[in-house]
């Protein structure tokens, strides 16, 4: 038996007498009530109490016997003994039900002797009986951490997956962006020897082959693509599904956006929609942006192709394994969510000269696609303290229910297009892609994920405070940069955080704008 | 925090008197001890016990594992299967949280029904209500040969059978229930159908799967 459940000391047995009082005029006695009283006494049991934790146990099974509204029938308590020494009281509450209430002072394990009798019109009946029930006050906290096991994953499987992973990259050409990511097998998976079903990857456009000499550097900045996926716990090979989804989506988007014949018109459409939006904004003219509609159409098509590629990759993998093993394998066995971001810096100042008043600063275009739970968000405290969640999570009525990219219906334009988000930002402190293993513990509800204060707590008090080495501070700014790998390692260490009840796989992928972060922090300090 | 609600529906009719009811008591003790040692169950599982004979009683409301103590049970009376199906829906509706924008939902409840006989009440209404609720995995266990297996098959696709309602088989059943509780938090398709036994550990040899 675990130590924490051992009693610290014993004390004299607890006891009380419950009296069923019936003062209904003779002749109207309801034998049924007394039978119910007896049944309720025999069914008595007490929840385990905990030291220093307020305890209230209502013996609600007596409510049937009391027949609400019949005030001639009531329960009384006599000879209550032993409870006060434990910091508890045994009494009748306002509703007429017996209860044990209080804040236990110390651990206890022993019996409660209960004597039951009835009094009809003041006369004691001879049908007394006794029951003995156990009662326990457990130690202050039940420490569950030592109970979690860390079992190795099986080896006789078609797909391996390491228990953790990190990712890091400084992107030199596209302004000071550092991408760091970490993924950790959850305690609940480790306890069962299950695989990590999360996966993440990224594709970086170091130099863009489409770069043209005459565009003032516009094309020097390619699209970077980040993807994260969470394999379904109910699907046998979801770890492979998550990997296929991430890699296929990343490759497909990267090629579409940077290399294909579609790339230039697509990027032009994105820039045009920004231009038009900007011009209208300057003229205080709101309303639908025509070129936005055009770019959305192109983007919808592009992402649909990428989602379809991911679906087909999983479909073919299932077919191959089915062929090889002669066992029933279907796409459902690879169910996984998908979080994708593509980001590109536009060299605004030279590209857009229509503004006569001032040169325009560069602008970031952020594309996203999000299906399933977790979150894709942009943290930008300097910009009106707003959080920008790039899409909406798909959570069902109950825990664990979500949507997967591996459903065939998801690879259609009509399903994909509404999930695609295009945003233009002057700046941001961080782009966040995280699985629900990371978001669930910190966001108490779906609506809190839309509020800046919840994200601020997450970003500053949890993430930055928990993994300081993953973020540059003024101090180490002077001492030079921390190597990206060290930052990713710090993130991985943070992912081991202990949060009772939350033990899923955890993955977080961040694109960080260090300069902006440092500036925000120094302004905050100056204040 | 997301809780995993577990409803145990136990037959305490007259025919369970003697060895079977004692075995159920021991079984619940075993379940309790096993769950107390399991970190997942300790942090997430909430257990309720509903007994049914001629009358149906929720003898333990949904209670976290660390606070749970096995109830006192006595055998006697009929077998109100219709009544207990209606009761568990009523309890779940009151006790299990669904997701809203402001709160996170619990896991879909697990339900284990153990019975050794034919219903003595009318079942249709309770069964209809039960089928409408969104349960997680529902397992019906026929203890011995004198069960209405056809009815159990209507309650759930997951019917298991104990050859006899003796100490060993019932102990094995409760052990399996506790193992199932420890492994039941899986991400599933929100548009998907009912959960199946695939998500539970394989039952021990004392328990036979009844093929639908």
Q: How many distinct domains of chain A?
A: 2
What is the CATH architecture assignment of the largest domain in chain A? 4-Layer Sandwich
Q: Helix/strand/pairing class of chain A, anyone?
A: alpha+beta
Helical amount among residues of chain B, as a percent range? 25-40%
Question: What characterizes the major β-sheet of chain B?
Answer: 7 strands, mixed
Features of the shown structure:
heterodimer, A: 527 residues, alpha+beta, 6-stranded mixed beta sheet, 21 strands, 26% strand, disordered N terminus, B: 212 residues, alpha/beta, Rossmann fold, 7-stranded mixed beta sheet, globular
How would you summarize this macromolecular structure in one to three sentences?
The complex is a heterodimer of chains A (527) and B (212). By secondary structure, chain A is α+β, with helices and mostly antiparallel strands.
What do these coordinates show?
The complex is a heterodimer of chains A (527) and B (212). Chain A is of the alpha+beta class. Chain A contains 13 helices and 21 strands. In chain A, strands 1, 2, 4, 7, 8 and 9 form a 6-stranded mixed β-sheet that branches. A 6-stranded antiparallel β-sheet of chain A has the order 10-11-21-20-16-17. A 5-stranded antiparallel β-sheet of chain A has the order 12-13-14-15-19, with helices on one face. Chain A is elongated and about 100 Å long. Chain B contains 6 helices and 8 strands. The N and C termini of chain B lie far apart (36 Å). Chain B has a 7-stranded mixed β-sheet, with helices on both faces. Chain B has a single domain, classed as Rossmann fold (3-Layer(aba) Sandwich), CATH 3.40.50.410. Chains A and B meet through strand 2, strand 9, helix 3 and strand 18 of A and helix 2, strand 3 and strand 7 of B. Strand 18 (401-402) of chain A pairs parallel with strand 7 of chain B, so a sheet runs across the interface.
